């Protein structure tokens, strides 16, 4: 079973990587860009066969390792 | 108009960050993890109002800056 975790910075948290991309896009002539934020996708290939079990496992992984919940939000997508 | 770009390593390209996460999850007692790959999400806030125009603009951004198409795939999602 495959799972995807999307980890993004909470609104209000400074994102220097996003700002760097924004400036680089401006420098390349892309004008209509108001804001850029960068996050992470983590793709997991899990042995679990049960969707509910996989989701609760990935949820635990997020809280313990994958996301820093002080400054980051995460969203989990399970693919059968 | 908002756009999301998902940049992931092509299959076969070594992913040391993903491997590091895999080992760390194993160390924390999460056993049923076969593989982990890490990618990027880039969230863009665009001035463009037209969906087709926004998509072609983001496509150009991907080719010029956001993705290294030699080793990375990208997927674009436009949100109205």
TrEMBL record, chains A, B:
Part of the phosphoribosylformylglycinamidine synthase complex involved in the purines biosynthetic pathway. Catalyzes the ATP-dependent conversion of formylglycinamide ribonucleotide (FGAR) and glutamine to yield formylglycinamidine ribonucleotide (FGAM) and glutamate. The FGAM synthase complex is composed of three subunits. PurQ produces an ammonia molecule by converting glutamine to glutamate. PurL transfers the ammonia molecule to FGAR to form FGAM in an ATP-dependent manner. Keywords: ATP-binding, Cytoplasm, Ligase, Nucleotide-binding, Purine biosynthesis. It catalyses: N(2)-formyl-N(1)-(5-phospho-beta-D-ribosyl)glycinamide + L-glutamine + ATP + H2O = 2-formamido-N(1)-(5-O-phospho-beta-D-ribosyl)acetamidine + L-glutamate + ADP + phosphate + H(+). Part of the FGAM synthase complex composed of 1 PurL, 1 PurQ and 2 PurS subunits. SUPFAM superfamilies: PurS-like. It is an enzyme of class 6 (ligase). Its EC number is 6.3.5.3. Pathway: Purine metabolism; IMP biosynthesis via de novo pathway; 5-amino-1-(5-phospho-D-ribosyl)imidazole from N(2)-formyl-N(1)-(5-phospho-D-ribosyl)glycinamide: step 1/2. It is found in: Cytoplasm. The lineage of its organism: Bacteria, Pseudomonadati, Pseudomonadota, Alphaproteobacteria, Rhodospirillales. This is Phosphoribosylformylglycinamidine synthase subunit PurS. GO terms for molecular function: ATP binding; phosphoribosylformylglycinamidine synthase activity. Belongs to the PurS family. GO terms for cellular component: cytoplasm. It holds the Pfam family PurS. GO terms for biological process: 'de novo' IMP biosynthetic process. It comes from the Bacteria.
């Amino acid at each position: 079973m495959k799972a995807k975790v999307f980890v993004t910075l909470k609104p209000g948290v400074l994102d220097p990587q996003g700002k760097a991309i924004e400036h680089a896009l401006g420098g390349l002539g892309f004008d209509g860009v108001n804001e850029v934020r960068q996050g992470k996708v983590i793709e997991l290939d899990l042995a679990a066969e049960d969707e509910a079990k996989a989701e609760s496992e990935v949820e635990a992984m997020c809280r313990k390792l994958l996301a820093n919940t002080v400054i980051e939000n995460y969203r989990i997508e399970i693919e059968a």
